[in-house]
Design brief:
The complex is a heterodimer.
Chain A (H helix, E strand, L loop, with lengths): L1 H10 L7 H11 L3 H14 L6 H20 L6 E5 L10 E6 L5 E6 L15 E8 L2 E2 L3 E2 L12 E5 L5 E6 L6 E8 L2 E2 L3 E2 L12 E4 L5 E6 L9 E8 L4 E2 L3 E2 L10 E6 L5 E6 L9 E8 L2 E2 L3 E2 L14 E2 L5 E6 L9 E7 L11 E2 L9 E2 L14 E10 L9 E6 L4 E7 L6 E7 L2 E8 L6 E7 L5 E5 L2 E3 L7 E4 L16 H13 L4 E7 L6 H21 L7 E5 L9 H6 L3 H11 L1 E8 L1
Parallel strand pairs in A: 27-33, 27-34, 36-37
Antiparallel strand pairs in A: 1-24, 2-3, 3-4, 4-5, 4-6, 7-8, 8-9, 9-10, 9-11, 12-13, 13-14, 14-15, 14-16, 17-18, 18-19, 19-20, 19-21, 22-23, 23-24, 25-26, 27-30, 28-29, 28-31, 31-32, 35-38, 36-38
Helix pairs in contact in A: 1-2, 2-3, 3-4
Chain B lengths: L3 H8 L22 H7 L4 H15 L3 H14 L4 H13 L3 H14 L4 H13 L3 H14 L4 H13 L3 H14 L4 H13 L3 H14 L4 H13 L3 H14 L4 H13 L3 H14 L4 H13 L3 H14 L4 H13 L3 H13 L3 H7 L9
Helix pairs in contact in B: 3-4, 3-5, 4-5, 5-6, 6-7, 7-8, 8-9, 9-10, 9-11, 10-11, 11-12, 11-13, 12-13, 13-14, 13-15, 14-15, 15-16, 15-17, 16-17, 17-18, 17-19, 18-19, 19-20, 20-21
The chains are: A alpha+beta, B mainly alpha.
């Protein structure tokens, strides 16, 4: 295009009053910042006619974008951008990928011939699904009815981190709204128009749900914002069972220009979005901002090569923070827009040099310099993902169970999820900075508990914990992972309350049940000390139960010290990292209960 | 009574030479002129004979024979200081550390003024890697002989090797007090100060070493390294260059200068230095590893992997080379290989490598 403008301009510089602007834009899109600014400035200098005033304002903005582009050249993002491959991409437009946070599921929008052809050419948008196993994406297939509707555009805009709540964009009302579809036991429900607190007469084209399902971020160009599309959020009201009033996230993120493609990462603290404001280098650029002490930080431009002078939108990032997915036109693709996988390499890994000196004059052998390893910034996100399958212990049949996520320190239920009835699979996101108790419950079964302490700045971990639920029967044993004691003491910590209350509830529901509480330690420390400690800890639990109304006659206790470890010392010795070893010791330190009679 | 003190003066073959450039000299036994013994009135011919046989055996490095003869002498005359001394030397020759030390302790018990015996004890401890005991022995020598600067100096060296840098500095202070132009002591005191991160004071000491001996190539190198610790890369480079001028085959200084240049972003110059270090010492693993570091910065990742391969082939437990090879492999999209290398680096002690193997990049790769 540029050559035509140039030719026209060279033939007749006055051919059109705005030709200098468009010439500047051509250079701008090529990333030729200097030349682009030259033309924009020439245009601005000559654009004295009142009707050119809006374009002149636009030229000044674009000059600033060029300056941003120049500055961002030196801040290139350390990423790989790779075409995700032909299992997902086609010769037709493939775009707007959304993923479950463990990257097991991708849903995206495509315009392929197996949907209805539009009257003026091309095909309607439909949603396709691909699943990933062992790192390989399956051949994408249509998501099917009722999400895909014949003769209608249906487009992806968001997917909850656990992959069970899908947000779809539809403009059948003429203004573009957000619809919600739920994966109910393997089948997607009829997409439902979201409430009026979210959808308005204006344009609502993006949505992203937080890890706990309690807040929905979305965009809207409704009146009253800071200009163009703005980012809003709405909180789920448990009592009213509806979404609350939309609240603008404020001017740290929103600008007089458009903000779009909001994506809230399941780490609970990182938002990705596209904006034509801030320090964009042209069109929409992708940005991120962190939630620190309840406030969003100044957005950071993700930089080239992710951002280009053209529009860059719709980035979703996996829970691990290592991989992201977006769509764009790039050379070497399969045709039209393709979906790309972004590998975030994190901060530059600096090589380590070795030096030595003849420090001692009378000793010929040099002495190697001692190296202090620099503190590294952790890569990826600060969160964990817990996945697994919930089954009946004996039949191994998948179970639909309730997963209750508790913040042990705050003694507060954060979220409740269900496992899939067909597969028994579940996925829970655990942002860094909390001690999480997880209780898996189903009527007729003993609850199963897990505990995860995810420190701040801990980096990313993925845990796979299959839970085989045990029927409430004599002889059954479960581990109470959320009972805590002070270090080397037998004082129950306050974080234990939730687990103890679950146990009390179980005993109340089964009034004839008699149980044994047993204490176990790891193998560090003396055996005698461990024996005594485990005994006292078991007794502390029983004392608590008695104090809370459980008949002492139903309760016995024992301390087994280090005699019944789950992970042996030999197995621990073979483990590679100190983190693994510590987790193994943690497995061994536990409180159990056993049903003695019913 | 035998006239041992007089005989001692003649038979105790004097201590080693404490030359600055050679610390390996040890006491040696020597032959005895029978006429001298006769003139001194040594009345026990049998003892005299065995002693002389012992000395001959010692001087001909026949240590077993020497031990036998001197043992016979000490059985005949249990307070014969020189016999213990020379048997101690024979045991030292046989690398029988415990026995040698026992003999020199006996010498010191019989003759508390024998600073040479204390010094030899220090040497024996030093050779066996027991630097703390060496330092004590050198200190003993230094306290017996309060003028010999070398005893204080070697006490400082042993303390340095024990990583007792503050105490080493005091010992070097004493050596310098005894010999104010003692270039070696200045150099080593500077090195002790580097270890406690007092770089400015170290720089002053290295400059003093150079002042008193302008040809001390290693003092220039150490001065460069002190500046490098201060991240004063320009002065670091300057003094490494001075070191190289004084010793053109000084591959250590080339390697160090390469690092100073690397830190300044002078990658081509750094690469030239590392290559020169390799040319001078083809088995110098550090220079290959450092070459790899430059290649990583130059984004020549395949070259970096090759250089690390070479470093690792020279030293299979080279933590930094595994760590760096991991970086290069990751950039070549060989994430599995990268994670395996970081795993090895972690096993060899790199904490940062542990962080990498626990990162999402290595999830499923280890």
């Amino acid at each position: 295009m540029k050559q035509y403008f140039e030719k026209a301009y060279n033939l007749k510089p006055t051919v059109s009053p705005d030709i200098l602007f468009y010439l500047g834009w051509c250079y701008h899109l090529d990333g030729n910042w200097t030349k682009a600014m030259e033309y924009y400035n020439m245009f601005a200098g000559k654009a004295t006619a009142p009707e050119l005033a809006p374009l002149k304002t636009e030229a000044f903005k674009k000059i600033q974008e060029c300056k941003n582009g120049q500055a961002l050249e030196s801040q290139k993002a350390r990423v790989w951008i790779d075409n995700i491959g032909d299992e997902i991409n086609s010769q037709y437009p493939d775009y707007a990928p959304v993923i479950s946070t463990d990257e097991a599921l991708m849903i995206f929008t495509t315009r392929r011939p197996d949907t209805e052809e539009m009257a003026f050419g091309g095909y309607f948008e439909d949603l396709y699904v691909s699943r990933r196993e062992n790192g390989v994406w399956s051949k994408a297939v249509p998501i099917g009815k009722p999400v895909n509707v014949k003769g209608q555009h249906d487009a992806t805009i968001g997917l909850s981190p656990d992959g069970h709540t899908l947000y779809v964009y539809n403009d059948d009302r003429g203004n573009g709204d957000i619809y919600e579809s739920i994966d109910e036991d393997g089948a997607w429900s009829q997409p439902e128009l979201m409430e009026k607190t979210i959808n308005t007469d204006a344009h609502e084209p993006d949505a992203s749900l937080t890890f706990d399902g309690k807040r929905l971020y979305f965009t809207s160009d409704k009146p009253g914002g800071t200009g163009g599309h703005d980012i809003y959020y709405s909180d789920w009201n448990d009592e009213k069972q509806k979404w609350g009033e939309a609240i603008n996230v404020g001017t740290v993120l929103n600008t007089p220009y458009d903000e779009r493609s909001v994506f809230i990462h399941p780490d609970g603290e990182t938002m990705y979005f596209a904006s034509k404001g801030h320090n964009t280098m042209g069109g929409y650029d992708l940005f991120y901002s962190k939630l620190v002490d309840g406030k969003w930080t100044t957005p950071v431009n993700l930089g080239p090569p992710l951002n280009t002078p053209d529009d860059d939108v719709q980035l979703v990032v996996a829970g691990n923070g290592r991989f992201g997915y977006c769509s764009s036109y790039r050379s070497g693709g399969y045709g039209e827009k393709d979906i790309y996988v972004i590998t975030f390499l994190g901060p530059e890994k600096l090589p380590v040099l070795s030096n030595e000196d003849n420090l001692i004059a009378s000793i010929a052998k040099p002495i190697k310099e001692k190296l202090e390893e620099p503190q590294l910034v952790s890569e990826g996100s600060n969160m964990a993902i817990l996945t697994g399958i919930i089954r009946d212990e004996k039949t191994k049949q998948p179970l639909k169970a309730q997963i209750v996520l508790v913040d042990n320190e705050a003694n507060k239920v954060i979220a409740e999820f269900n496992s899939d009835a067909v597969t028994g699979k579940y996925l829970v996101s655990l942002p860094g900075g909390s001690n999480y108790g997880i209780a898996i419950r189903k009527d007729g079964y003993l609850f199963h508990s897990e505990n995860f302490v995810i420190p701040d700045e801990s980096g990313f971990r993925q845990y796979n914990k299959d839970a085989d639920l045990k029927k409430v029967e004599v002889g059954q044993t479960i581990i109470l992972r959320n009972i805590f004691f002070d270090l080397d003491k037998y004082t129950l910590r306050p974080e234990s309350v939730n687990e103890l209350e679950r146990l009390i509830k179980l005993l109340q529901e089964n009034p004839t049940m008699k149980i044994e509480i047993s204490g176990h330690t790891d193998t560090r420390g003396s055996a005698e000390h461990n024996q005594e400690l485990s005994y006292n800890r078991a007794k502390a639990v029983v004392d608590y139960l008695i104090a809370h109304g459980i008949d002492a006659g139903r309760l016995t206790y024992a301390g087994y010290g280090e005699t019944k470890t789950i992970v042996s010392d030999e197995a621990i010795a073979k483990m590679k990292s100190t983190t693994e070893k510590e987790e193994a010791h943690q497995q061994n330190r536990r409180t159990e209960f056993k049903i003695l009679s019913m | 009574m035998l006239k041992f003190p007089v005989i001692l003066l003649l038979l105790c073959i004097s201590a080693g030479v404490f030359a600055q450039t050679d610390t390996s000299k040890t006491l040696q036994g020597g032959g005895v002129d029978q006429r001298i013994l006769d003139s001194l009135g040594l009345v026990n011919p049998e003892l005299q004979k065995k002693y002389n046989e012992g000395v001959r055996a010692l001087t001909s490095n026949n240590y077993m024979e020497a031990v036998q003869r001197f043992t016979e002498v000490t059985l005949m005359e249990p307070s014969y200081v020189t016999a213990y001394y020379n048997r101690g030397m024979a045991f030292k020759g046989l690398a029988k550390t415990t026995e040698a030390i026992a003999d020199f302790n006996k010498v010191l018990e019989l003759d508390p003024s024998n600073h040479t015996a204390a010094y030899i004890k220090g040497e024996i401890y030093n050779e066996s890697g027991d630097y703390e005991e060496a330092a004590k022995a050198f200190q003993q020598a230094s306290e017996i002989n309060r003028t010999d600067e070398k005893y204080a100096y070697f006490q400082g060296v042993a303390l340095f090797q024990s990583e007792k840098y503050e105490e080493a500095i005091k010992a070097f202070d004493e050596a310098i007090r005894r010999k104010p132009d003692y270039a070696y002591a200045y150099n080593d005191r500077g090195s002790a100060k580097v270890q406690i991160e007092n770089y400015d004071a170290a720089i002053l000491d290295y400059n003093m070493a150079i002042k008193y001996d302008a040809n001390l190539h290693f003092a220039y190198n150490n001065l460069g390294s002190a500046y490098r610790k201060k991240e004063d890369w320009v002065n670091a480079e300057k003094y490494y260059t001075e070191a190289i001028k004084r010793k053109p085959d000084y591959y250590i200084a080339y390697n160090n200068r390469g690092s100073a240049r690397f830190a300044q972003g002078k990658y081509a110059d750094a690469l030239a230095d590392f290559s020169k270090a390799i040319q001078l010492n083809p088995d110098y693993a550090f220079a290959y590893n450092n070459q790899a570091s430059v290649y990583i910065k130059m984004e020549k990742f395949e070259e970096a992997v090759k250089a690390c391969d070479k470093a690792i082939s020279l030293n299979g437990e080279y933590t930094e080379a595994y760590f760096n090879r991991g970086i290069a492999k990751e950039m070549l999209k060989d994430v599995t290989g990268a994670c395996a290398d970081w795993q090895d680096a972690f096993i060899l002690g790199s904490e940062n490598a542990e962080q990498y193997i626990n990162s999402p990049a290595c999830a499923g790769n280890n």
